[in-house]
Amino acid sequence: MFMNVAYLNNSTSTVVDNTKPLIVTSCGNYRVKNRSEVVTHRPNGRKDYQLLYIASGKGHFFIHGEEKTVSAGNIIIYLPDQPQEYVYYRADQTDVYWVHFTGNEVEEILKYYNINLKNNILYIGTSPDYQWLFGQMIQELQLCRPRYDELISLQLRNIFVLISRAIMSAKKFSSTSEKEVAFAMHYFRKNYNTEISIEE
């Protein structure tokens, strides 16, 4: 299994900090390839918030005693003290990003961005922008450069903005067309200095 994880101040202990509106405490990426399964079981949950993004493959989440298979393009949100139980199987080739966060205005911030706290699972699409932003948060947490804690909270807000856009535009566009446009834009940004044919 590929793992790329990072923690605020390089501390793996759970952080509950109410001194600021929004604080990212850890972020990571798992790609399940060689282990038969990866199991998370926290009967009492955690003291912070957690958001998971399924970039590809799928995960199996047990919410209120019911198993839900969650496919690519969905986020799962756990509130403080909410029981957590989920499994990733090798056969599903799961690629998942996650972030833990805390703060004194988290609930208000999530509501502002139209993120319904009563609905644990939400489809937001498979834009590469999500993966890039998660990757940036992981990198900042690993490098610990000056004011990195401020930057990663802004990057998480950026993810919230994209989630809010996805929610608001869900009725206007089909998920297929949005996905194609997002991947095309990402491809052009990455390959601006190479010759691109119409077929490509």
Automatic annotation (TrEMBL):
This is AraC family ligand binding domain-containing protein. SUPFAM superfamilies: Regulatory protein AraC. Pfam families: AraC_binding (PF02311). Residues 34-150 form the AraC-type arabinose-binding/dimerisation domain. InterPro entries: AraC-bd (IPR003313), HTH-like (IPR037923). Keywords: DNA-binding. GO terms for molecular function: DNA binding. The keyword DNA-binding applies. The keyword Zinc does not apply. GO terms for biological process: regulation of DNA-templated transcription.
